[in-house]
Amino acid sequence: MGVEDVTMKDFKLKPMKCELNYLTKSDGSAILSQGTTVALACVNGPLDIKMQSQSIEKSTLEVLFSSKGGKPCVADRYKENVIKQTCETAVLGSLYPRSGITITVQELEDYGGLLCCCVNSVCLALLNSGIAMHHVFAATMCAIDVSGNIVLDPSHEEIEKARAVMNFVFESREKSLVTVFTEGSFSEAAYREALEQCRLASELIFAFYRDIVRKYSCIIG
Fold first, then answer.
1. Sheet of 37-48: strands edge to edge?
2. What's the CATH number for 2-220?
3. Pairing of strands 177-184, 99-109
4. 114-129 and 188-220 helices cross at what angle (nearest 10)?
5. What is the dihedral sign for C-alpha 205, 206, 209, 214?
6. N or C end of the chain, less CB within 10 A?
7. Would you say 91 and 178 are in contact if contact means Cβ atoms under 8 Å apart?
């Protein structure tokens, strides 16, 4: 399993590990750990689907999330919606009309930052599948502590004590914001600062992607 510590200037993200092709019976898969949080994503498609579910203009994207406990809840549907909206901006669905693409995400361990880990594992699984994309995407997070300080890539304990938690997803070309999901209260100034810190951090995630894909290409070459 490839291991990378991603650092830049004054901050350091949690150690990341990834293995592609983790599942043999999928078109693409990736198991990713960010610190001690672990998610497994797999992609199947393009696939033939029922006529009533087909779109003549693009593929039909379905996202399924399974928690470690196995019992579905509202929070799971929220994760599915965030991942689906993010993927729909990235996947070149117009190349696969009248077909379906299914993305399945499994929570393995959650010690903070699970949704970001899931989003990033999905991007790696899409890269592994070979499905055409406008861009790749990376999710980063930060917390605002009780003193108003921004903590990048917070630990589980820091998240529990935080006044607010912010998660951002950026695309790889212009580092534009694709998706944002937040909890808690914060000022506009704190939001802008958090956004820029997380934008910088996304560069490290993209560098990690490149390294993993490069290593995998060398293995299969």
1. 2-4, 16-20, 28-34, 37-48, 99-109, 60-66
2. 3.30.230.70
3. unpaired
4. 40
5. negative
6. C
7. no
What would the two tokens of residue 24 be? 């043999």
* Contact status, residue 32 vs residue 17, Cβ threshold 8 Å: yes
Rounded Cα–Cα distance for residues 142 and 198 (Å) = 7
- State how far the Cα of 220 lies from the Cα of 218, in Å rounded to an integer: 6
Distance CA 133, CA 182 (A): 26
Q: Tens of pLDDT along the chain (221 residues)? A: 433 444 445 557 999 999 999 998 999 999 999 999 999 999 999 988 888 778 888 999 999 999 988 777 888 999 999 999 999 999 999 999 999 999 999 999 999 999 999 999 999 999 999 999 999 999 999 999 999 999 999 999 999 999 999 999 999 999 999 999 999 999 999 999 999 999 999 999 999 999 999 988 765 44
Position 205: which residue type?
Answer: I
- Can you tell me the distance from the alpha carbon of 151 to that of 163, in angstroms, rounded to the nearest whole number? 11
Cis peptide leading into residue 46 (ω within 30°): yes
This prediction's pTM: 0.91
Q: Compute how many other C-beta atoms are within 10 angstroms of the C-beta atom of residue 182.
A: 15
- Rounded Cα distance between 84 and 72, Å, is 17
Distance, CA of 45 to CA of 54 (rounded, Å):
13
Q: Is 114 exposed, middle or buried (0-12, 13-18, 19+ CB in 10 A)?
A: buried
Phi and psi dihedrals of 144, rounded to 5?
Answer: -110, 115
Secondary structure of residue 173 in the 3-state scheme:
coil
